[in-house]
User: Fold these one by one.
Assistant:
Number 1:
Amino acid sequence: MRRLTLTPRNDWQRRVEKVGLTFHTLADGSPYWDESVYWQFSAREIDRLEAATAEIQRLALAAGDVILSQDRLGEMGIPASAHAAIRAAWNAEPPALYGRLDLAFDGGSIKLLEYNADTPTGLVEAAVAQWYWLQECFPGADQFNSIHEKLIAKWKDLKDYVPGPVYFADAGSEEDRMTTAYLEDTAHQAGLDTRHIAMHQIGWDSKRFQFVDLNNHPTATLFKLYPWEWLLAEPFAANALETLPPTSALREYGPRTDRHAWGSMLWIEPIWKMMWSNKALLAILWELNPGHELLLPAFLDGPRELTSFVRKPRLGREGGGIAVIREGECVEGSLSGDAADGYVWQALAPMAGGGGKTAVFGSWLVDGEPCGMGVRESRGLVTNNTSCFVPHLFQ
Amino acid sequence: MLRSEGRCLRIAANVQLRLSWERPFLELMRRSREVHLTLLASLALTLTACKPEHRDCVDAQNRKLPDSACQAAPGTSGYVPGAHFWYGGSSGGHPGDTVIGGSAVSRGGFGGIGGSADGGGE
């Protein structure tokens, strides 16, 4: 694998805007989409990344069973009010669309850094913008990126099973809005009836016991680019849970047979993704698979014997609250403060880099299958919302 | 989210996209055969912020009930069939008073955290 430089296309801003990447430049004027460099891989390296992604997905599925069978949701900091719904959703297997594993890869070892299973973004960049970049700059090369067609295929599979229309909701940031617009586009191309709604526009009809759109039509299916831990901390939390039947209700009555709102809305991603998007998963994976070549030592109770490690809030987002400790010294972030939901301590991973930057490889899954990759580069070791997206190819 | 003395502010922006691209595909490649984007996406970014709505628990005839009637599960004490919350209406404030105006639909119960952060994606 090599990090190579390239002269950006003259009008790269206009080109990426045309394919939906309108958020290509950071607030300080520097590029977020950085095509002055790219990563080149061999086909064998891509095979390894793909296989590693599939293996980690297998480990995560097994971990989900253990978390529930050993009643460890509380230990992960997941509110008790959600436990029954998570258990029911895990068993009922409602549709789950996508996720992104963030991997460290230096050409030798591949290590899982975290699993963004609930609300991953970087999708327009990975699925669309870098595909068009490849067509224009390296039309004879290949790219680990069939995300677009896999998304459409998944929606086609779901077409007869999800009640329509399918609403796509986000909190309104430009990146999130374009991400839901893209996902809506793929669903639309698969033949589904789709709508957009902002999260704050969703209504709760207390007479019909269901969520409604701005025209008071029931929102029978909702894709929400909005994390479950936020949903469950907001005024409609109880209503959301009311739409998710507990296991006992499914067993006794089946869905949609009341009380009130049970099963009245299908949520994508399902609530069980709270288990995987929580960084406590990293410690549980290590506990269940100690020494696994794709995992880093990680713990819930402190760094133990680690002298170089990363301390991550269990529910941290966009690199927030992360501290990097190398040989006992904090070299990035801060150890001050106290995360409300606790921390995970994870060993430092060997990382690839170049040009003073560190690279993280975001490996995408659609319907649980590996299907593409996006590369983020950061000045430090922590990927945050100012880390650049860099395209890739392989020969 | 924008807040101003409890009043709702509304900002709207519309952007339209129509994208199309196709190319021959080599079967062995790992990239998508095509990335063809056809949806006319009208992006309405509407940000509102409101005070929590006033609500009353009412029966099927919109007569005011104690809030506990709307919070009790069926089969438990205090449960009143047909009891539901009613938002934004007004009444004399006493049980049995008819609540006028308003709606059974409440909004703004999601999006508060994301509206003040960088969004929900990561």
Note: Residues 10 and 376 of chain A are 22 Å apart (CA to CA).
Number 2:
Amino acid sequence: MRLLPYGDEALLAEPEDPATVLALAVALRDEPGVREVVPAARTLLVRAAAEDLARIGARLRELTATARAGAAAPDGPQVTLDVHYDGADLTETAAQVGLEPDELVRAHTGGAYVVAFCGFAPGFAYLTGLDAALHVPRLAQPRTRVPTGSVGIAGEFTGVYPRPSPGGWRLLGRTDADLWDLARTPPALLTPGTRVRFRSA
Amino acid sequence: MIEILDPGPLATVQDLGRPGYAALGVPHSGAFDRAALRLANRLVGNPDDAAAIELTLGGLEIRLTAAATIALTGAPCPGAPDWGHAVSIPAGASVRLAMPPSGLRSYLAVRGGIGGERVLGSRSTDTLSGLGPDPLRRGDVLAIGPVDGEVSGAASLGSPAGDAVLPIRFGPRDDWFTAAARARLVDVAWTVRPESDRVGIRLDGPPLSRSQDGELPSEPVLPGAVQVPSDGRPILFGPDAPVTGGYPVIAVVTDLDRAAQLRPGDHVRFSPGKG
């Protein structure tokens, strides 16, 4: 694992096996001195006081061994999202991957997904576990406005837009689930480690 | 209460932000010049994390509906009652701040702090994600919180402004750049571009060349990161930076307060020595 400097009060860890990022992030949360752990696609960022970083880095290396074993089955909460598969890009995306639209829907609802990390907007979760046959690039021209609840795919990820925003993901459908609610703790429905399934509504 | 008669180019409510929620996709936000916010709060006897008004290029005009004690810090604006001191303002009086001759951001703290609802522990306006109150508009009325601390006699001469040297630490992705680009980052006096804002200070100068192509999978980003997009011109991320980014971060600025006062056209150098 590479440990890269990130200013004076953070480090960026790059595990050799990207599948361990989430398990390491979860394992490190309760480590003394850790102010915040932020997972992303291949790396995790740890914020701590400068004097704690060396110890936390050493702890990360220790955790790598156990994290690897636990990485395959994260023990997060399970959420099922009901989706109306009438997205603007459903037909074209199906054609692009050589499927009928209903086959694309079956492939998407057949997946067992895990929230790898959040980014882009509050509550926007990047879900891994997408069938490799459905890996398609983002739209060449992002939309200026994607409606709340839009379910999309891009590259190796699938996800749901928690509120209206610009966006370049290919839209397969929409869900009525409340992805972001400030009255809830935490406000994000999908947090790193949450296991997700999609169901055709 | 504080009545906004004119917000100027951009005025927002800021405290010390909402750290700790990046894993949910929530930016840090908060005052750009945190030292100036803390000082303004101390002058009026507030806790360091009380909310104040962050002005951008001055231009703010307010009226106080009741007598209040205020303090102004950051970039000094002509027309201010008394920079860097607690000042008593009588009920009904207005305060009008002109554009600072140098520097960019000024802070107006009021004894008791700006009130209003907290979102994830903070009253800050996050200009990227939209969390917190909207930027201030003419006619807005801001509540003032309860008073407890002691007014302090400390004074300041305002934040330093103009051309700056910012301390950096190389990494995490300096190995994505040529040795020449790493040297150039330090050697060049970068010019602040007009498109700069609370999300990032965009810099102009000779482009930084990469030693490797390809895209970086999204990585966590912190305020202070110097990210280099494909055009090779660095962006220094501010408090409203996104929590992840896909371009390599060549270095991280370890003291962002000074950067808050950079205005378009100013020059900035990066110093890998301890600042």
Note: Chain B touches chain A through 31 residues (CB under 8 Å).
